[in-house]
Amino acid sequence: MEGTDVALKDLTAEQFAELKTDIQGKYDELKSRNLKLNLTRGKPSSEQLDICTDLLSLPGENFIDKDGTDCRNYGNLVGLTSIREIWAEVLGVEVKNLIAADSSSLNIMFDLISWSYIWGNNDSEKPWKDEGQVKWICPVPGYDRHFTITEHFGFEMITVPMTPIGPDMDQVEELVKDPQVKGMWVVPMFGNPTGVTFDADTINRLVTMETAAPDFRVVWDNAYAIHTLDENFPEITDVVKLGGNRFWSMSSTSKITQAGAGVAFFNSSDENLTWYNSHALVRGIGPNKINQLAHAQFFGDAEGVKQVMRKHARSLAPKFAKVLEILESRLGEYGVAEWTKPTGGYFISLDVVPGTAKRVVELAKDAGIALTAAGASFPYGNDPENKNIRLAPSLPPVEELEIAMDGVATCVLLAALEQ
Amino acid sequence: MEGTDVALKDLTAEQFAELKTDIQGKYDELKSRNLKLNLTRGKPSSEQLDICTDLLSLPGENFIDKDGTDCRNYGNLVGLTSIREIWAEVLGVEVKNLIAADSSSLNIMFDLISWSYIWGNNDSEKPWKDEGQVKWICPVPGYDRHFTITEHFGFEMITVPMTPIGPDMDQVEELVKDPQVKGMWVVPMFGNPTGVTFDADTINRLVTMETAAPDFRVVWDNAYAIHTLDENFPEITDVVKLGGNRFWSMSSTSKITQAGAGVAFFNSSDENLTWYNSHALVRGIGPNKINQLAHAQFFGDAEGVKQVMRKHARSLAPKFAKVLEILESRLGEYGVAEWTKPTGGYFISLDVVPGTAKRVVELAKDAGIALTAAGASFPYGNDPENKNIRLAPSLPPVEELEIAMDGVATCVLLAALEQ
């Protein structure tokens, strides 16, 4: 988080009026440019997508996997061994505890909750639908699509604040004493939207804490585990090995190969996977093996995956640097905002003056700059302090990003001055 | 169905003993060959899979759809317009009423029932989980994976017999007077396993019958709509247009391009699709568009799809002819079996002497010929007459199929003689 030197509140009335005239002028000029820029979602850019174009011609005539499987025919509930082996090495987990699925890890998360709701999971005394009110821990700010799932099932979402080392574990340990608390969302590495990676103590407390519910689950959405911006790959903790049935761990190649057309993975304990497969086998025959084979051929091995990630880092790092540079140069001195400085992931979390986030997004929209809706990183879209904005720098080229972020800074200042 | 000339029951004791010695000898000889043949499931053969090998190099560098969509990035809940347009023409339905999904239509069926169970569908007064016993109509013999889904949700499955023109509609019309009857499985064209295509009167009665449940649904699994064996494509009725919200219609390219790696489609009314999408949007962002684009490029247009199907027909027709020829020559005279003579689809439904189907499958297994488990085409795997066996001729080459079917005929006769 970013401190400040000369805060807005310390300005004289004259200085304040002068600044407001200046910023209002900048905003009017911004509006007059009729921009159409978008910082809403964590989408890869065309430059990033070009990294994996060769994958789109695979597998070609090499449709037999190395274990002899003809990937063009039915069968194989848990996915191709070849892609599971590569990914298990990337994550540092056991192959037998890793399922390769279709393209969406979100699909897997939804199904895990849906099937626990209908039938209970392998540690449930009864289906979650037959519990009283199911409660769910939601570190905030967090990933909006997580919260949408638990809202859809009518779970009561209880927020705990994110800190620079993970969720506030004192609060989490207190909450899990309630047997109605059945689970928790986390993005443990380069998290959405804070960029925070959980430290060893946080992970240890999540592994060892006593929960009143025997069927409590942590949805360990490791979507950004290898999405470094500085080409340093942090160590990935094998929580499944440490945590028994507690962790449902997900990842995918959506932000590695093709967004929404990659391979998603589910890593969990033997018992959890047996339970999952008992339902997955009724839902269908198995995942798209052709797509999995293409990915295995394209990557070759775990090092091949890291090579791709280094290319992404080189594309993304200048964009993150540009956003941080503009935030610092435009807002640093006024004490009207704080922001995260991630070394990985897809987002920067910006906290503006409490009570002004919605106004900032509105001002930006009127100037042709689309930002993620204020509050989107909170359950029910409700940021109680109305201060958080998620910035997604990946999609636009640097030149556009620069224009957009300079505009956002103007909007942040103007909203602060209005208030 | 097949009649007979000289029935087993009309043989003299001497003739009977002579035949039994002969057949037992044939069976012993069969066993001594240590065969390993498989007629269990409706899998395409390698020869069929080779028809679409060119698809496996697509889309290559042409990853932009004709409407400008970069198929490598996120977005598009309902699937690519280009593949939806081609498939809508194949089915003769409106593009706006057709969703293109990932590879499995079974996944869609499961989700439709799951979401109706949890939240109710768009015509439900309450979620199906809050109903008393949900009941479901199952024409038999039918598709085992259908029955497994409704068994998994604890629905009471009520069987009605298939006739050569569709399910017994007198029984269906009677059953739907019960408000607990919420739906019905059907495979309306070249059905699994009978090969029957519903006639116009059957379809009309399904469209117009009064159901006590307002949220009653027919799962119209049109998996084999264009899977002709004689290159005649029967007319496909647009039941969605005729039937309002009653029909959930599914199809896929699993037995056209790659099995389990094609594109699945869901065709239904505007209201049904709005309801489906309201849940699908929470489960994920959208389907694999790269795979959809590859399919659109490979087919080109609806005629391209039919060209592929003609090639499949040329591969499959000799296999079906061989099975029918052996059944007729080996069993025709004895009155120990009846079988369907489909002009499309993937299966032949064989009825042996009541009480002997399990024994036939056991005898075949002991001789190294794997058949679908007796009873598999019935809910709970329970064929009350123990007479039905599903034959799947597609996978083995003709020479193997000939050996396998000759063996099966020996087993059918031996089981009949034992009884």
UniProtKB/TrEMBL annotation, chains A, B:
Pfam families: Asp_aminotransf. GO terms for molecular function: L-aspartate:2-oxoglutarate aminotransferase activity. InterPro entries: AspAT_Ic, PyrdxlP-dep_Trfase, PyrdxlP-dep_Trfase_major, PyrdxlP-dep_Trfase_small. Signal peptide: none annotated. Gene3D superfamilies: Aspartate Aminotransferase, domain 1, Type I PLP-dependent aspartate aminotransferase-like (Major domain). CDD domains: AAT_like (cd00609). Keywords: Aminotransferase, Transferase. It comes from the Bacteria. This is Aminotransferase.
